[in-house]
Write a structure and sequence with these properties.
Chain lengths: 121, 107
């Protein structure tokens, strides 16, 4: 079935980096984009950025520019989100989602299960 | 950047009630406006995309409408499974953005 499976929970120290993976199955990975969204405790959903798998074009939220890199490995149908210089307020659940905006105008519809990243000294 | 606001922040309702949530954009956007349902510990669930298109498998009691800067999500008859937080999401103009959420709880 169509699904995105993310890597497991991470505990990081301030200043470190984290790289979360998102493996796709059940659909043609190269046809879509992948979006990353996070949800911090007590906060709302926050758009981080997206990558068009078919041409590698990336867009990042200004808030994260310079700290985040989104990439894909089409050979394994896996997307990655790396966040650097972690701070305590980066503690959140990070989600990847399939994004068909360019094809059908559909918002992110299939979501990964989420990866909890905890930043603590 | 386009700022999204939602009202109300919290809505107390009973099963069977008609519920309406409003989402406003700080500037006019196209029809690329979506609505998500979120329950703690789960992934967000897409309900509506392109302002009024129901995602596959979403019950017909959910509907969306609007244009320009004002959009609404309506639940025609609230069911027990609908108690959750709802977010609007504009994916028209970068940086894409979400509203702050509306929590629907039991009156």
């Amino acid at each position: 079935q169509v699904q995105l499976v993310q890597s497991g929970a991470e505990l990081k120290k301030p200043g470190a980096s984290v790289k979360v993976s998102c493996k796709a199955s059940g659909f043609t990975f190269n046809t879509y984009a992948i979006t990353w969204v996070r949800l911090a405790p007590g906060e709302g959903l926050e758009w981080m950025g997206r990558i068009s798998v078919y041409n590698g074009d990336t867009k990042y939220a200004q808030k994260f520019h310079g700290r985040v890199t989104i990439s894909t490995d089409t050979s394994t149908s896996t997307a990655y989100m790396e966040l650097r210089s972690l701070r305590s307020d980066d503690t959140a659940a990070y989600f990847c989602a399939r994004d068909a905006r360019a094809i059908f105008g559909v918002a992110p519809d299939v979501w990964g299960q989420g990866t909890t990243v905890t930043v603590s000294s | 950047d386009i700022q999204m606001t939602q009202s109300p922040a919290t809505l107390s309702a009973s099963v069977g009630d008609r519920v309406t949530i409003t989402c406003r954009a700080s500037q006019s956007i196209s029809n690329l406006l979506a609505w998500y349902q979120y329950k703690p510990g789960k992934a967000p669930k897409l309900l509506i995309y392109k302002t009024s298109s129901l995602d596959t498998g979403v019950p017909s009691r959910f509907s969306g409408s609007g244009s320009g800067t004002e959009f609404t999500l309506t639940i025609s008859s609230l069911q027990p499974d609908d108690f959750a937080t709802y977010y609007c999401h504009q994916y028209d103009t970068y940086d894409f953005s979400f509203g702050p959420g509306t929590k629907v709880d039991l009156k």
